[in-house]
Amino acid sequence: MFSYLHHHLAVLLLFLLADLPGYAQQPIAAIIHSKGKVFIKPKTAGRWDTSAANLRLSAGDSVRTGKQSYAAILYFNGPEVWLGPQKSHLVATVKKESMRSKIADVLEWLFEQETPLPHGLSRGPGKPPVLIYPRYGKLLSNRPSFAWLSSAAGTEYVLQLFNENDSLIWKSIQKDTVFNYPAEAQQLIDGVNYQVEISRQFKDGAEDYGNFSIASTADSARMAALQQEIQTTYKFAVTRDIVYAASLMKEEFFTEALLVLQQALKKQPDNRTIRTMTAQIYEQVGPLLLINPMLK
Questions:
Q1: What is the pLDDT averaged over residues 257-281?
Q2: Alpha helices per DSSP H over the chain
């Protein structure tokens, strides 16, 4: 409760101070990915400093890249800017009507989110399995995938799925830590709540579990339309991945967002924006012990 109030009081204070003379302008863009040497010169500063990915930018700030370097800049109300080697960009206020859509709403939401703090949690060998996904929220797929953290080598796991009436839908014994919903099983029903339980073989009761629901047909269609808009709006894959994942996160499709981010990290493992977004999902739904690796 304290953290929630503290955050919103801070936002209110920034809003009130924004109109005071000399107070720093609010960020309107961010560097969502960079490689090599990227330099920032704030409007109020006289020299260039080396930047870091995920850095917020205000109107009047300048960005430039060095040799064999690049930077991707995303404005909070939609437009993207890609700077190749030895290029520069002056951050300017973009007219709101230039892109007033659901995408802009998603970006405004994304850049309001706080970066999670490291939890310092660790997990040794031989511990119970920990469910990675789906832990909470909605799913777009009627045939989802399941993943969990392993226990000791050679462990067999019992994966069970129950409907909202606590009736067992299926039970499977697995040696792997990833399981795809059986093709021969009846697909899950839109709008119905489910609980997945994971445990080690010969253990009594669930050792970890997750609750989720399948999205309605209308929700699925809405997200598909938004994904199509994102695909046609943005030229660069990194922007499409970040914006679509943020769209899923905002609507509590945490599992699908996590899958998008995991694939994006395979292409850009050092992207701080993608790593931070992944940590934000773990902060909201767990497992918390996976936050630390994402923030390194």
A1: 96
A2: 2-17, 102-110, 217-233, 237-250, 254-267, 272-285, 291-295
